[in-house]
Amino acid sequence: MTERPGDTPIIDIRALSLAYERGGTRNVILSNLDLSIARGEFLVIVGESGVGKSTLLRVLIGLAKPSSGRVRLDTRPGCRTPMALVFQDARLLPWRRVVDNVAFGLEGAGLSRAARRTKATEMLALVGLADLAGRWPHQLSGGQRQRVAIARALAVEPDVLLMDEPFSALDSFTREGLQDELQRIQAKTGKTILFVTHDIDEAVTLADRVVVLAGSPGRIAAEVRLDLSRPRQRRAPALTEAARHLRAELSRRSAEL
Amino acid sequence: MRYLRSTLLAAAGLIAFLGFWEAMPRLGLINPAFLPPPSTLPAAFLREISLGIWPEAVVASLSHYIVGLAVGAGAGIGLGLLSGMFRPFEAFTAWIVRLLRPIPGLAWVPFAIIWFGVQPSAAVFIIAIGVFWIVFFATQGAVRHVDRDLIEVAQAFGFRSPLSRLVKILLPAATPGILVGLRTALGQAWMAVVAAEIFGVPGVGQRMMQASSLLSTDIVVVYMLTMAALYGLFDTAFVALQGWLLRWRA
Ligand SMILES: Nc1ncnc2c1ncn2[C@@H]1O[C@H](COP(=O)(O)OP(=O)(O)O)[C@@H](O)[C@H]1O
Ligand SMILES: [Mg+2]
Main location per UniProt (chain B) (predicted)? Predict the structure, then answer.
């Protein structure tokens, strides 16, 4: 799904800047960033490590405050959790069983315990882990943990799913499996997804649109739209071509800056 | 096999210890009035029970122990959480803590007696103070060291108030550390029980003092072993509870 004319973007970031003050020095991470995300879009942000990708997601979810600029959301009014974040390391709560981890975000939503469990079980089935509901997090593999984290984020029915390099710690086998799974979930739920990665192949496999974040302070250096049907053939010529283009942009930008 | 062997060795060690203990007074190496041989203890124990002294002393001491532990641990956990959660609270109390912390629990005995009289509440007070600091520092440290990443998870899911941070993350994450403090306190509290009762509050400690002034050392030893057994019982139960509460750990 790409942006149709007339649609208001679900997230509209304007002139966003963020700097950390430390010991009198000002470290500008993001400067004057403009970015909008269409409803239902799968937007992938790529960039080298340290460029400010996580920082951007942290601003959106409210874990960091921008120095200036604004973020306009066109999410459902009154929703407690318009966005949900999947962290790079799953960050499950080790003292909760898998099902209770998935139900975590629902505890502020005024649902009964039974209703929360039902919803959590449903989400676990969606990520293919229905059998592991009663396990403790330490009994899961890295890939399973990340699936639980995805289920936990989906359970709160966010309008936008934010994902911060969610597969980067996994072996390539597991990673490709989860990439396929994520595309399937998006097709099924129609969620807007803002996905951050430093892996260009992952970016072109998943994205409707890829945005390159580069430089210091970070700004948007290039953008590629991928209007390809899904499910996608991994390493299809069009994807390889897009990846080559992005790599060229990235190295050109880092040479410039 | 290995387990069996170490059990056998442990039993052999205990038997050797008891044999040595029995032999010393019997061979006349030690005056039996100074060290009663273990074989005399069952009779002394039965006598104390038939007189009804043992159950009464044990019940009294247990009630001091449990109430003192609950009060001290409750206050320690509560203030430890506040101090671990809120920097201003920690700063405000920093010098008060420095002033009061080094004072040994027993140094409070004169005030305990002046404030509460020779009453169970005086014993409870002394025990509670002994327990308080251990639990307070364990709780404060445990809360302070909770993984910030987990606190962020709560924030990212919209749990931003201090109360929800406490309930959703801090308390469960700090539980292992708090339990370690509580277990130490469990032992510390028995010492405080004896100390508090030696000053006359009825209980095991008081009975030991009476018996020693009559040179009934067999009775003294009966109560020493009683306390060892009670402590062992509590500690075993506590470890089981701890294991259950922390069953989520690898
Ligand atoms: N709390 C913080 N205080 C100071 N600097 C920070 C803080 N968080 C991140 N940074 C800095 O901001 C930069 C961008 O970090 P991040 O957004 O995590 O990058 P990325 O996710 O793209 O790898 C890094 O140089 C990092 O050191
Ligand atoms: Mg990052």
Answer: membrane
Tell me if A86 sits within 8 A of A61, measured CB to CB: no
Q: A51 CB under 6 A from ligand 1?
A: yes
The number of folded domains in chain A is 2
> What domains can you pick out in chain B, each with its CATH number?
43-249 (1.10.3720.10)
Residue A129 shares a structural domain with residue A173? no
Q: pTM of the predicted model, to two decimals?
A: 0.89
Distance, C-alpha A180 to centroid of its chain: 15
Could you give the ipTM of this predicted complex? 0.91
- Interchain contact B155–A (C-beta under 8 A): yes
A146 domain-assigned: yes
Chain A: residue nearest B149 by CA?
A91
**B229 CB contacts (<8 Å, ≥6 apart)?**
none
CA of A165 to the centre of ligand 1 (A): 14
Task: Count CB atoms within 10 A of the CB of residue A256.
Answer: 9
Query: Could you tell me the CATH number of the domain that includes residue A251?
Result: 3.40.50.300
B69 within 8 A of B249, measured Cβ to Cβ: no
The three-state secondary structure class of B201 is coil
One domain for residues A25 and A146: no
**pLDDT of B247 above 90:** yes
Q: Note the maximum CA span of chain A.
A: 57
Sign of the four-CA dihedral B149, B152, B157, B162: positive
CB atoms within 10 A of CB B80: 27
Instruction: Answer yes or no: is pLDDT of A1 > 50.
Output: no
A79-123 pLDDT per residue, tens? 788 999 999 999 999 999 999 999 999 998 889 999 999 999 999
pLDDT tens across B174-188, in order?
999 999 999 999 999
